[in-house]
Amino acid sequence: MLIAYRSRYGATESCARSLAGEISGDAVLYDLRRNRPSLASFDVILIGGSIYAGKIQREIGSFCDRERDHLLLKKVGLFICCFYDGERAMAELEAAFPPWLSAHAFAREVLGGEIHPRELSLLHRLLAKSVIHLDHDISTIRRDGIERLANAVNALQASR
Questions:
Q1: Counting C-beta atoms within 10 Å of the first and last residue's C-beta, which end of the chain has fewer, N or C?
Q2: What are the structural domains of the chain?
Q3: Is 15:79 a contact under the CB 8 Å cutoff?
Q4: pLDDT score, position 134
Q5: pTM of the model
Q6: DSSP secondary structure, 2-58, as one string
Q7: What counts of helices (H) and strands (E) characterise the chain?
């Protein structure tokens, strides 16, 4: 099982690692910023990234487009990290991935978000301060979302 993700400041990587720890069996983690994984040896693939200014990282979209034919032959789950809840969070999740992949996915989750202003680039720190008035660390990581996604993967693997 593969967890392919893109993390800018570490929240998505942290969620990917938590997912890997909850999944039965081996889970291979790939940060799409550094690696280009071969999908041939994986039956189940989770893909995730974080939302910045309403968009997921470019590497996620490129990976999905480049690997479309392979992904449509695999069991694929999708996740995002963002701070929204409810309908807004689901709209962000829908917009993050190509429609063909969202329709194909066996599971989709919003896993919350995390910001540590001291770790942000100057531009992102200024945006966080002016747009959401953030000047302190905040975490809304959703353990229940991580558990739901891991349970969906575990159930899928158990049924094989």
A1: C
A2: 2-113+143-158 (3.40.50.360)
A3: yes
A4: 64
A5: 0.87
A6: EEEEE-SSSHHHHHHHHHHHHSSS--EEEETTT-----TT-SEEEEEEEEETTEE-H
A7: 7, 8
pLDDT in tens, 79-125: 999 978 889 999 999 999 999 999 999 999 999 877 656 776 777 66
- Per DSSP, the three-state class of 128 is helix
Tell me which residue of 88, 104, 93 sits closest to 55, measured CA to CA: 93
Structure tokens at 109: 């989750």
Per-residue pLDDT of the chain (160 residues; tens, 9 = 90+): 999 999 877 889 999 999 999 999 899 999 998 867 889 999 999 999 998 778 899 999 999 999 999 999 999 999 999 978 889 999 999 999 999 999 999 999 999 877 656 776 777 667 666 666 666 666 678 999 999 999 999 999 888 7
State the Cα–Cα distance between residues 114 and 7, nearest whole angstrom: 11
Separation between Cα atoms, residue 12 and residue 90, nearest integer Å? 17
Instruction: Return all residues near 88 (Cβ < 8 A) that are at least 6 apart.
Output: none
Are the beta carbons of 48 and 5 closer than 8 angstroms? yes
Dihedral sign for Cα atoms in the order 1, 42, 95, 8:
positive
